[in-house]
Write a structure and sequence with these properties.
Blueprint: E1 10-14, H1 17-24, E2 35-39, H2 44-55, E3 64-73, E4 83-91, E5 94-97, H3 101-111, E6 117-124, H4 132-139, E7 144-146, H5 149-158, E8 164-172, H6 183-196, H7 198-209
Parallel strand pairs: 1-2, 1-3, 3-8, 4-6, 6-7
Antiparallel strand pairs: 3-7, 4-5, 4-8
């Protein structure tokens, strides 16, 4: 009887220490294979460097990659703690389509009941977006913005063919900008949601390991 191949690993990339802490203190049960949580550092260049370096390791050469952490919502009506599942990521260097969006939406709705899940394009930026710039980005069709997801996924697919996805938690939105009163409460809400999402990520990863018919 031939040995079964080792399950493909999952690389979860985030930028900030607080995001990494939320993910590391989550329930790790139910992973379908080896899981690495990578803190890339802040900004697209840091994300590109970190992801490219880590995926050069043969142990992660075939890893699925999921970018996560906090983001700024662009659409009116978004609230801190809402979830964003990217259909694709955009930045000036290129567009990357995401895999398994529908499954992620379904699993997040089950894992974090009561939280609104938005889907659409997630755009990248090299700085924190506020005010009119938020409206300008919304006009392009993007529903949310962050500084690392687009660079993370673009770097991941450049190193080899692999499934990629991006799931972000809204920490501020047009009516709830970070500079306003209530920021702390919004941040705590987003942190709690981020702590809860790993089971959905693991289910997404497990679905990639199933044989295709």
């Amino acid at each position: 009887m031939s040995p079964q191949p080792a399950p493909a690993p999952l690389l979860i990339a985030c930028a900030l220490g607080i995001e990494q802490f939320a993910l590391r203190t989550s329930d790790r049960g139910g992973a379908g294979g080896p899981v690495t949580v990578l803190r890339t550092g802040m900004g697209p260049r840091a994300a590109e460097r970190s992801v490219t370096r880590v995926l050069a390791d043969s142990a992660l050469s075939g890893a699925a990659v999921l970018a996560t952490g906090f983001c700024a919502g662009l659409a009116p009506g978004m609230h801190p703690g809402d979830l964003v599942v990217a259909e694709e990521t955009w930045d000036p260097a290129g567009t990357v389509p995401c895999v398994g969006t529908d499954l992620l939406v379904k699993e997040l709705a089950r894992t974090v009941p009561g939280r609104t899940v938005h889907t659409g394009p997630l755009t990248g930026s090299d700085h924190v977006v506020r005010g009119q710039e938020r409206s300008d980005l919304l006009a392009t069709g993007a529903i949310a913005v962050d500084m690392e997801s687009a660079a993370t996924l673009l770097s991941a697919v450049r190193t080899g063919e692999r499934p990629v996805a991006a799931v972000r938690v809204v920490v501020d939105a047009p009516e709830h900008e970070l500079v306003r009163i209530g920021t702390l409460r919004g941040g705590i809400s987003a942190f709690r949601v981020l702590r809860s999402v790993l089971p959905a990520f693991f289910e997404w990863h497990r679905s990639l390991l199933l044989p295709r018919r």
